[in-house]
Amino acid sequence: EGDRLRVFSVATMALDSEVALPPKSWPTRVLEGRSGELYVLLRGAGAIATVRGQEVTVTQVCSEPRALALGPNADQLTVGCAGGEVVELVGGAISQLRQTGVEWRDLALTADGLKGTSFRSAELVTVGQSTTRVPMPAQRVNTSPGSTVLHRGQVAWRMVAAGTRTYVIHQLHA
Fold first, then answer.
1. Is 122 left (phi over 0), alpha (psi -120 to 50) or beta?
2. DSSP state of 138
């Protein structure tokens, strides 16, 4: 369908509510804001939906939004796009747009600032005054007794920031 947000209750293990989204939205990521609102990345619509109960507000951000992070204040949101854009929203309106050249996968606000991963190159990226890209380290993997192969990070699947640490799950490639 690609045009519905279904909210399930963990407590009751049942459908809690269903919210209509614009046609062909392709909702792919969701974050809960500090006041209970939901921020939904609409990949097919190039937008972010802010959902409060059954009320939906849609803000266009870029052609292919991919990553979503809450900012330090209740009404701040950062979106990373496949075309390299980083879009910052405050109160539902675009406040800043930067071009980074990164095909974004995940974003998180950390103690060190905004961090994220690129999809196809498996890099950890820090966005500040400039953009710093660090590839995932190569690893030696035993393939048979007495034989090892050097594998490099190829695809970053997920990134999570927890306190001062950032964790990245990535696929290795020989």
1. left
2. P
